[in-house]
Amino acid sequence: MLSKAAAAAGGGLRFELGDIASFETPEPFDLIFSNAAVQWVPEHARVFERLLRALSPSGQLAVQMPANHDFPSHVVAAEVAGREPFRTALCGYARQSPVLSAEHYAELLHQLGFARQHVRVQVYGHLLESSADVIEWVKGTLLTDYEKRMPPAVFAQFLAVYREALLPQLSPRQPYFYPFKRLLLWAER
Description:
Layout: H1 2-8, E1 29-35, H2 44-53, E2 55-66, H3 72-81, H4 86-89, H5 102-111, E3 116-128, H6 133-139, H7 143-147, H8 152-166, E4 176-188
Parallel strand pairs: 1-2
Antiparallel strand pairs: 2-4, 3-4
């Protein structure tokens, strides 16, 4: 993604690979923007404190992150991961979403001293051919966290058990409307 972004970028932009959890900068930014990344990092209070320190005196923070951790697609994945043989393959790893409630982020931004803010939950409806397509959707997002921790054969078994557990919890309507919540945060110092 970085090489594509650099090739498409205009003058004055540069892209660097880094770790959000330990992000520091010697020069402050006027804008820090994160799209679908912060949800992979724990301890959001510390992350947002660090981001605040990286902003100029009138800097702005804009963050978007998925907040669908309470939807069956995500709840069932966690339940299946807790079953054998997956629990053993995951070496006891249990994915806990670090994403907080919208109210918690509003309070956090206030406590950090942001002068203005806008925090909201937005539901994006994705029209899929069937409920089975939800599995394909989360294979490219949530399930990557499990896939990278399991041998391929075990992950294939995980997908089969996940499918069997998830589909009865979703509407069989076709097309299937997949409501996907996202948190949108904006704040200005």
